[in-house]
Amino acid sequence: MTKISVVLPVYNCEEFIFETVASILNQTYKDFELIIVDDFSSDNTVSVIEQFKDFRIKLIKKEKNTGYTDSLNYAISIAKGEYIARMDGDDVCVSTRFEKQVAFLENNPDVVLCGTAIKFIGLDNGVKIYPLSHDSIKIKLCFGTPFCHPSVMGKKQVFLQAPYDKKFEPAEDIHLWSRIVNVGKVVNLDEVLLHYRAHSNQVSVSNREIQKQNSFFVRMEYLKNFALKDKFSDEELKIIFIHDKIHSLQECEIVIKFFKYLESKNFLINEFDVKEFNLMIDNIKLNMLKSFFNLKTFFRFDSLLFFIKHSNFTDAIKILNFKKRIKLF
């Protein structure tokens, strides 16, 4: 039995696909098949792929464009491997990626999915380390993305049990993680095993708005035990989960009320580790408040009353320190 099925959906990525495929074929771990599903590209993507003469490559050429999640689910449905490794057509694997992920999964049979740290290439740079433990990943999923999608490797059965759902594109990965965390243990390795390319052809502004909306629906389901819709209107919840900035003191009130409720509710139902959860929501709350208060608005009379009303002097000092970069005594 093949150990790994590498699932690589591609569409119009002729500029980067050669480097991507080469990085997969040059892995130190050799027992894999590479399933490439081309979504009816209109450029030379297929021609570039066909330059490779490697028996491990299975190239599927769709006769019409049916979308990213269709490509993923089809590839998984024909996969012969014990594990599914994800890749995208513009990223680059470190040569030891498969070797290290397989070793980890084999040595930790209770783990069903394993991601890695990444190094940005292209228009961005730097390294990103994702939450490492299962509990930290569950908490991160409340407000963020706990994995780099093309870095993950997991048991094929998990992907069959929780297939990608087209209606959540382009947030299909968030939806997937929200279900897999309840199937088994998930982790991230703190080692960079993927070079993630940032470039101008990624998610467009319009798609980013759709992504936010679909992520919102996923998180409402994920946090259903908090009964958020019983306490807050959709508009109030969208201020928290969708809007980038706070625009009024009224919205600041909603933010403080929301995070205070989250903290107390989690203490009661014990959904997430209390200490780590409180630390995360305190940071998110503070960053949201910083988006509204600046040196001009901070010293307005109504702003000062706001902090007095909420006895929120710790946040006030943190915000002022952030804005002025000075120490207050």
TrEMBL record:
Under the heading InterPro entries, the entry gives: Glyco_trans_2-like (IPR001173), Glycosyltransf_2 (IPR050834), Nucleotide-diphossugar_trans (IPR029044)
MF terms (GO), sorted A to Z = glycosyltransferase activity
Domain (Glycosyltransferase 2-like) spans 5-153
What does the UniProt keyword field contain?
Glycosyltransferase, Transferase
Q: What is the lineage of its organism?
A: Bacteria, Pseudomonadati, Bacteroidota, Flavobacteriia, Flavobacteriales
Q: What is this protein called?
A: Glycosyltransferase involved in cell wall bisynthesis
What is the source species? Flavobacterium cucumis
Keyword check for Hydrolase? no
Family to which this protein belongs: Belongs to the glycosyltransferase 2 family.
